[in-house]
């Protein structure tokens, strides 16, 4: 498959949705939450460029989701992975 045939927006949505599974250290005041960052670096860079996560570069094994990233992470998780009734 050619790289031009890959929908990176869909990949980014799936990565953000899967981050919902690993959320921890949520701060209700700020709306920020940490998630493990063991995903493709290009996808993490794109999510950072969209202000959905803070800069993923560093030694930490987790990344901070912005309030919007946290909200979209949960929304995408249920949209992509919940069984329909």
UniProtKB/TrEMBL annotation:
InterPro entries: DUF6429 (IPR045489). Pfam families: DUF6429. It comes from Sphingobium scionense. Residues 7-83 form the DUF6429 domain. This is DUF6429 domain-containing protein.
